[in-house]
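agent> call fold_tool(seq_1)
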Amino acid sequence: MSERAADSRTRILDAAEALFADRGYEASSTARIAGRANVPKGLVFHYFPQKIDVLVALVDERTFVEELPDGPDAPGALVEAVPGDPAGTLSRLARRLPLHASPAMRRILFREADTHKSVRERLGRLNSEVFLRARRALELAHPGARGDQARLEAAAATFTAVLIYQENLAGLTGQHIDPDAVADLIARALGA
C-alpha cells in the first residue's frame, strides 16, 4: 500500500473512530465518515466494502489485548506479584491494564458490544485476560488462599469488573473508582 493510500485509509479510520465514539455506529453514515476524513465516499468503499468492515477494522487494528503467555513460567509472566501484598499487586496490575486502546475506542467497544459479534468477542477476550491476570496475581501474592479458589475467583472477577468498566461508569455518571482503594478492599476481604 502506498504512503498516500495508507494515509487515506488512516484518515477514514480516524474519522470513523471519532464518529462511532461520539454518535455510535448506526448513526454514522459512510458519507459522514468520508466527509470527516476529507475523502470521496467511493474511497471508503474501496478500503471497506461495507460499513461493518470499518468497525471490524477499528476493533481489530486499534484495540490490542496483551495476552499472558502459556507455559511453565506463565504464572508469574506479565504479573508483578509481591508475596504477602495482594493490594499492592492488584494496584500494579491496574496500572498495567492489558488493553491498548484510546478512550474513543473503549467507548466504541462498550457501545457496540451488544449489537456486533466481533466487538463483543474482543471485549470478552479482554475480560478473560484481565480476570486471568488478577487471579494469577492473587494466587502469587496471597499463597495461603490457594485452597479457597472460589474466593480468589470472586475477588479476581470483582477487580476485573472494576478495571474494565470504571471508564464506562465515569463516562455515564462522572464518578471515578479508585482501583487502589478497590485493591485494598479486596485484600482485606481475603484476610491479607
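agent> call fold_tool(seq_2)
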Amino acid sequence: MSTAPRPDDREDRDARGRDRDAEGRARNARPRDGLGRPLPYGTEGVERQPEGVTRTPEETVTQAQELLDAGRPFHAHEVFEDAWKSGPESERDLWKGLAQLAVGLTHSARGNLTGGARLLLRGAGAIDAGRRGERPYGIDVGGLVLWARELATTLEGDGATVDAAEHAPRLRGPGE
C-alpha cells in the first residue's frame, strides 16, 4: 500500500493545484483503490502500475493475468495500454482490445453495467478482427471473445455488479 502526499504538499503541482509531470502533462497522483477509483489524498491505496513501461509481449500477458486474477482489472488495463502505445502498429488493435476488455470488467465491478457491457463487446470485436483461430503470444482470442460476450449478456440481463477476481478471464486459456 502507498500513501500519496496531500495536494498542498506536492512539489509537482501547477499554479492551479493540478498534478503535472515535468513536461506539464496531467498526472493524477491521488491514491486509488483496487478498481482504480481515486481516493482522497493522504488515504492508503493500492500500488499503481508505473506508466510508460516497455515490456515484452510475454511479460505483458503474464503481468496482466496476475493483476486480473487479483481482482485489479484497472491496473491490468494500464499494462495493456503500455503495450498498445509502445508495440508495433500491427499489434495495436490486439493490445487496445485487451485493454478495453480489462476496462469493461472494471466498469462491471464498479456497477456501471451498461458501460461495462459495451466495452467488453468493443474489446471483443477489436481482438477478434482478423485473428479468428489465432493465438498471438498464446492469447486465447476465441476464448476471450466468448468470455466477453457471455459476460456482456449476463450484465445486460442480470443487472448485478460482478466480482472482478471471480470473473477474471484466462488470457491464455486453461492450463497455459
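agent> summarizing second result for user.
DSSP finds five helices and two strands in the chain. Residues 77 and 99 are 4 Å apart (CA to CA).
agent> awaiting next instruction.
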